[in-house]
Amino acid sequence: MKENKENAVISKATIDRLPLYYRTLKLSQEEGIEIISSEELGRKIGVTPEQIRKDLSAFGEFGKKGVGYYVRELMRNIGEILGLNRTWNIAIVGVGHLGWALANYANFSPQGFQLRAIFDIDPEKIGRYINEVEIFHIDTMNEIISARDIQIGIITVPADHAQNIADRLVEAGIKGIWNFAPIKIDVPPNVHVISEDLSVGLSSISYYISRQH
Amino acid sequence: MKENKENAVISKATIDRLPLYYRTLKLSQEEGIEIISSEELGRKIGVTPEQIRKDLSAFGEFGKKGVGYYVRELMRNIGEILGLNRTWNIAIVGVGHLGWALANYANFSPQGFQLRAIFDIDPEKIGRYINEVEIFHIDTMNEIISARDIQIGIITVPADHAQNIADRLVEAGIKGIWNFAPIKIDVPPNVHVISEDLSVGLSSISYYISRQH
C-alpha cells in the first residue's frame, strides 16, 4: 500500500493497472480515438468499467458522465501519476541474450526511459557499444551511476549473481530495480523492486486454452 | 470474464494474479517453506490477504483456518487451474534480439512450455538452430505447427508485420498468442491473445520512485 498526495490509500493492484490504462489509451490515441467510455476502455484491457472508475477516482476527477474520458487528457494525467512526464535514466547489468534484447528494445525511450549504461564482467564485451550505449565493467558501477544520474537498474544476470548485483546497485544509489533473474532479491525499503517472470504471460494463455476444452 | 467448471464468474484480474501466486509459492517451496498464511503470501506479492482468500475461493476450498496454505498442495492446485500440469508446445515467430532472447530463456520449460519451432524469413537464419530448436521459413508454418502440435505462438516481429503473422498463426491452428509487437492484433474469439509491453514494468517502478520525493 502506498499513499498519494491526498493521503488516500491506493492499492498496489490499482497501481499495477495504471500502466495498462496508459498503454491502451496510447494505442487508442494512435487509432485516432478522442473520447473513450469506461466500458470500451474496460473491454480493451479486460477489467470492468466499475474497476476503472474506482481506480481513477483515487487520483482525482477524470472524464464526464455520459461522455467518457478524453483520451489525450487522461493519458497525460495517468502519465504524470506514473512519473512518465520526465526522463528516467536506466542501466542494464548483464549482457546475456536478455540483456542484449532489452538494450535493443525500441519501446523504452518513447516512454521516457533512457538507457545510459550497460554493465558486464566479460573483458570481450567491455568497451563495446549497443545502440551507442557503452558496456562498462561492473567495478565502475558507483562512478558511472552517479555521473550519469541513473535511477533504475535492470538485472539480467544469472540467479546466483542477482543478489550481489542488487546490493551493488543499491550501494551505487539506485532507487528502483527491475529484476529478471528468477530469484527473490532483498533491498532496503526505500528501493523499489519489480521482479519479472516472463513465463507468467504464458501461464495466463495456458489457463484460457485449458478452459476451452 | 470467464466461467469456471462450477459456472461461477471469475474475473480476468483474478486469473492474472494466479501466475503470481504460483510463482511465489514456487519460490517459497524452494526456500523450504511448507505452510504459508494468506498474510505472508499477500506481503510477498503485494495484495491483501482478503484478496487472496477471495481469489482462491472462486476455485474451491484451499488452506485451513488458523493454519494457512500448504505450499506444495496449493501450488499443485493452482498449477492445474492454470493448465501447468501438462506440456504446451510453443513457437516463436521472428528471430530479432527479443526472439533470440526468448528462445534462450531458461525459465519456460520448467513450467511446461516447450519451444518446438522458430520461424523467420531471413535465408541466413533458416535451417539454423537455437538450443536445438530449428528455425523454419514462415511459409512452412501450417505444416510445422500441425506436425509438432504447437498450441501457442509468440510474436516478436516488427509492429507492421504482427497482424499478418497473427493471421497466419490462427490459420495454422494456434489457440493462444503472446504478442510482443507494440500494436493491437485482432484474432477470432476462440484464440486468446496476451499483449506484452515490457515498458509496463518500468512504469510501475517510476511511479514508486516519483512518490518518494
What does this structure look like?
- The structure is a homodimer of 213-residue chains.
- By secondary structure, chain A is an alpha/beta fold.
- Chain A folds into 2 domains: 80 residues, Arc Repressor Mutant, subunit A (Orthogonal Bundle); 112 residues, 3-Layer(aba) Sandwich (Rossmann fold), CATH 3.40.50.
- The first copy, chain A, is built from 8 helices and 11 strands.
- Chain A has a 7-stranded mixed sheet with strand order 7-8-6-5-9-10-11, with helices on both faces.
- In chain A, a hairpin with a 5-residue loop joins strand 1 and strand 2.
- In chain A, helix 1 packs antiparallel against helix 4 and helix 2 crosses helix 3.
- The N terminus of chain A is likely disordered.
- At the A-B interface, strand 1, helix 1, helix 5, strand 10 and helix 8 of A face strand 1, helix 1, helix 5, strand 10 and helix 8 of B.
Largest interface: A-B, 69 and 69 residues
How many separate domains of chain A? 2
Please outline the major beta sheet of chain A.
7 strands, mixed
Supply Rg of chain A.
20 Å
Strand order of the largest sheet of chain A: 7-8-6-5-9-10-11
Q: Distance N terminus to C terminus of chain A?
A: 38 Å
Assembly type of the shown chains? homodimer
Mean pLDDT of chain A: 88
Please state the second-level CATH architecture of the largest domain in chain A.
3-Layer(aba) Sandwich
Order of helices and strands of chain A: EEHEHHEHEHEEEHEHEEH
For CATH, the homologous superfamily of the largest domain in chain A is named as: NAD(P)-binding Rossmann-like Domain
CATH topology of the largest domain in chain A: Rossmann fold
* Helix-residue proportion of chain A: 40-55%
